[in-house]
Design a protein that fits this description.
The chain has helices at 2-9, 21-40, 48-62, 66-82, 87-96, 99-114, 121-133, 138-151. It is mostly helical. α2 (21-40) packs antiparallel against α3 (48-62), α2 packs across α4 (66-82) and α3 packs antiparallel against α6 (99-114).
Amino acid sequence: MIDALRRMFEGRSPSSPAASPEEREHDLRLATAALLFEVVRADGQVDDDEVVVMRAAIRGTFDLPADEIDEVVRHAQDASLRAISLYEFTQVVDAAFSADEKKRIVELLWLVAFADSRKDPLEEYMIRKVAGLLHVAHPDFIDAKQRARSSAGR
């Protein structure tokens, strides 16, 4: 997070071409994980089931070993708690992922929301907001929700 802010003040965005591929990949992992954590904490409580699903989503999206997932989750939680807005995360994800990949991210957000067997209105609001910032079309948003609901066994 601090590195991203420093790069911003140096005139380079987290996903700018001047960043190395490793920096861009790190920023993408952090931004994606932070968005997932935003849904975890949207209802005012951090549920263990939601954290488990969040970790699985990170592992599945980035194919990371457990120790790296721990580090990404730790940094994402910290970044999420310190963030001023979602834009600092969504701009990285929006620039790096294709439309299908962004739809998949929205589906993962829904999976996190459904992990505790209830969908809180604040979680839905957060996912709608993120989907809008990622330029995910409404029909794709609804499809992602339905797919996640089916996957969650609801």
